[in-house]
Write a structure and sequence with these properties.
Rossmann fold; 8 helices; hydrolase
């Protein structure tokens, strides 16, 4: 993971209602002038106050989120987060345009090709000249400040994500396991995330 520091050029654009199968969310649009990318934050319920907010920081995965790929667990994780927030009645999802752990869609397809030849997800990124995880979470800071969110209960299996947020001064009150979507096509991928990237999985599930 890398960060540009806190000189982040994030602009709030507009908000609108977003009806979903899990209930009514509010969608907040942000533009990143430095990367020319657009990010979305979904909120549900009253997000004000000091009580930690149920939250998911989700990096875009076109193949998993929209094309129902079973090579990863991204789509099920996104849907499970929306469901859990709906049950809680309040929460937030940060949908960050950082495809392929930050390497972009076309490079992700190249990485998939290398995985087809036997590389794991980390080896494939490294063979393409990238780090194992190139995502930049510093873009979250201005979004949280705009929405006046003080504290998070983070739905994640990734302790590095928790540390990245804490290092920026974001209060993570609790890490909540978020394990779903395991299938025969992504078993090696999940094992690599656990073994090489430090993700915390309950192997009994």
């Amino acid at each position: 993971m890398y960060a540009r520091g806190f000189v982040v050029t994030i602009r709030f654009i507009e908000s609108s209602k977003l009806p979903t199968p899990w209930g009514m969310f509010v969608m907040h649009g942000f533009a990143d002038d430095e990367t020319d990318k657009e990010h979305v934050v979904l909120t549900m319920g009253d997000i004000s106050g000091d009580e930690p907010l149920l939250a998911r920081v989700h990096s875009e995965c076109l193949t998993g989120d929209a094309l129902f790929s079973m090579r990863c667990d991204c789509g099920p994780q996104l849907q499970a987060a929306m469901h859990k927030i709906a049950l809680a009645g309040r929460g937030v999802i940060f949908y960050l345009r950082q495809e392929g752990r930050g390497i972009g869609l076309l490079n992700k397809i190249r990485a998939y090709h290398l995985q087809d030849q036997g590389a794991d997800t980390v080896e494939a990124n490294e063979q393409l000249g990238f780090g194992a995880d190139m995502r930049d979470y510093s873009i979250l800071k201005p979004m949280l400040e705009h929405l006046k969110i003080q504290s998070l209960k983070l739905l994640t299996n990734n302790p590095r994500k928790v540390k990245a947020l804490q290092d920026m001064g974001i209060h993570v009150a609790e890490r909540l396991p978020h394990q779903t979507g395991r299938n025969p096509h992504n078993a090696k991928y999940l094992e690599t995330k656990q073994g090489k990237l430090g993700h915390l999985f309950n192997t009994d599930d």
